[in-house]
Every structure is written in C-alpha cells, then in structure tokens.
C-alpha cells in the first residue's frame, strides 16, 4: 500500500499551462452548472423517457415531490415504481421550524431560493464558457501532443489496464511521468464522452436549436429523453469528481495540487532510472 507522494524522486514539468488553466476553468464551470442546473430541474422535478411528458403519459421513472401523510408534509421520491420518504433532503425541506415543499435544500441550488430565470442565466453563461474552454483545450492539446500522449489510450494501455486496476484496488498509487491506463480511460471518458454529451443534450433541449438542427431530437429520442441523459451524465460527472478528489488525497494532495498549479510534480525515482 502506498498512499503518499515519493519523497526522493525528481521534480518534472508534467502539466502544460493550457492544461492547468482549462482544468481550473472546468472546475468553476461545473460547480455553477451543477447548482444552477438543479435550480432549473426544480421547475419540473421529474425524469422521462420519450418525446413527450404530461399527466396523460406514464413514462416517468423519477419524480420528486411532497405530499401530506397523516396530516404532516413529507418529501416523497418515486424511483422506478419504488417510493421513498426523503423528508428534509428531497421534496420537503426544513426552513427553520417549518417544512416547505421544495425539491432541493437551498445549499444545493443557485440561487438558494426559487428563481428559475436567474438559474437559467447562470447555467447558460457557464455552459458557453465550458464550450469555449473545451475548444481551447482541444486545440492546445493537439499542438502540444498532450491529447495523444496522455489522454487517448493506446493498445499498451488496454493491455496494462488489468494490472493498473489491481494496483488501485490495493491503493498502490503510482507517480509517473505519464498517466496510467485507468487515468487515461477516465479522462478520455470525461473529455470525449461526458462533456460533449452534456453539451449535445443541452442543445437538444432548446427549441431554438431544434429549429436549426431537428435531427438532434431523433438522435436522442426526443427532448425528454435528452433531458434525462443530460441529468444522468451530470450524476456521472459528480461521481467522477468524488473519485478524483479521493485519488488526489490518497496520492498526496500537495504533490498533486502542485502539478496542477505550477506544472511541476515529483515522480518515483525508478521513472528516471535513478
């Protein structure tokens, strides 16, 4: 088990400036997108599969709301036909000594109170910054070969995936000049699958964009299905963030943060043959 950075290894310049700037820009964007997105979701706290939704349709698999049970308000969450009491967390939220019908607690949304218009403004603002930052990263990473060298997995990475998974399971976290197979696959999934999918499904939910590119509705099976994919991809990104932070802490936060702030990282001595 190895849970800290190497002390005697050399310092190398691992992260180029473009990677560091876009990394922190994404962190800020995704924070505001998550909380403003939950504000927007409160306007219709249900997820559907299909092109349409409404009272006459029975195609929702998630619904968050409130109901009176034995004379008191309770938060109710329905998931795939199963009903859960989520009072205090989802559907019915405590506000001082009173409980009110509200999808999420105030600390989970931007703004903290119900304000769909402001939530949409914040969401769209940071969404376009995210798009611009992603384009900048693609261009810079092609020029400095960060994309092909460190992100796109090759045949050798796929062959080494099993041993890399075993090392992570034993918490043997390596500090090397290049990303390991699991890192490459994770970052590839975020940068080439999750973020583009979030952008595409977000645009598909826009009636204005539908008029420009109606084929996106067919691609994602309708606006409601696109909304569901958008929400589930957001949950996957939150899970990635939690695992990412855990790996940073376990691998030695000072060394990891230094690499994403200054670009310099201390690696294992055997990496340079020392």
From TrEMBL:
Please list the GO biological process terms of this entry.
Answer: respiratory electron transport chain
Any Pfam family from its record, for instance, is Ni_hydr_CYTB
Would the keyword Transmembrane helix turn up in this protein's UniProt record? yes
Q: Where is the signal peptide?
A: none
Q: How does it sit in the membrane?
A: Multi-pass membrane protein
Q: Does the keyword Chloroplast apply?
A: no
Domain Cytochrome b561 bacterial/Ni-hydrogenase, chain residue ranges per copy: 89-263
Q: What is this protein called?
A: Thiosulfate reductase cytochrome b subunit
Membrane-crossing segments per the record: 21-42, 121-143, 185-209, 229-251
Entry GO terms, CC: plasma membrane
Organism this protein belongs to: Aureimonas pseudogalii
Keyword annotations from UniProtKB, A to Z: Cell membrane, Membrane, Transmembrane, Transmembrane helix
Where located? Cell membrane
GO MF terms, alphabetically ordered:
electron transfer activity; heme binding
Q: What is its main location?
A: membrane
